[in-house]
Amino acid sequence: MVNFPNKLNLAQTPTPLQPLDRLSDELGGPRIWIKRDDMTGSAISGNKVRKLEFVLAEALAEGADTLITCGGVQSNHCRATAILGAQLGLKVHLLLRGSAPKELDGNLLLDHLMAAEVSYYPVSEYQHLDKLFDQWHQHYRHQGRRPFSIPTGASNGTGAWGYINCARELADDFGHHQISPSVIVIATGSGGTQAGLTLGSHLFQLNTPVLGMAVCDDKDYFLRKVRKDMQDWQDRYDQGSPQQIDIEQLNIHVNDRHIGPGYAKATPEIFSTIRHLAALEGIILDPVYSGKAFHGLLQEIREGQFHDASDIVFIHTGGLFGLFAQRSQLGLA
Questions:
Q1: Which of 24, 45, 75, 190 is catalytic?
Q2: Domain residues for 180?
Q3: CA 161 distance to own-chain centroid
């Protein structure tokens, strides 16, 4: 039995697991299923809310009234934090990597709509993130507030519970559909979702490897980061015998062949995949995470990497609002 810590009920779960039959027939390969975590909520859509259910429960338990977190200008995590902060009556301060755009769009528009405090930092300053967090912590403490810091993507030992919980859902999904997938595929950007799913796959005996399709950084980075998040989870939450996990024995799988030009930079081929899946299956992907990872998965299938697979599950991690900020590249005008 897995002993979960306290969490807030913020996400619309369980999310559906749906087959993409037309796409699977078109490819002539394994049957592709999609776990619709883009349906965890309307404005809070995506994977971040699962992690924030646990992280924000911790923040409230500590008496926090101010949330400080970070990400790119179009960060899905920052948008979800801003919205949930507003729902919970908490002040939110976002530390964003990059410069202020001429127009508010996508996730950033929603950040401002929720009245989040936004500070922009060039890469040269943003790389000293710990210093920035410390600076704003002191600022709010001097104001008599109680700040709580959330790391990039809410990816730490506490946030890992979000996708351990998702693995529990997947166990039910697999039983309901009577499938035993060959692999679970996700976009991996901060590593926390992959860490949670890897732990959860073991804890709930899915017998299915979790493959992270890197959207930034390389394979070696994610092998270290995912392991670090899993170790942080174990350090914080000792499951005790017989649930004690030997973290070093858990396999971490990463594919870094489809990053392209870099984080939040998608090739025309990725936008083509986004258009095609939307028209064929009515599924909307984003160019930063889900679109890049799904395009990579299709490329791997076409190259025969999954020739012996029966069923493949793709976790849709959301990101719809980020698509609007790059709509000019869809070629629809």
A1: 75
A2: 17-46+157-330
A3: 13
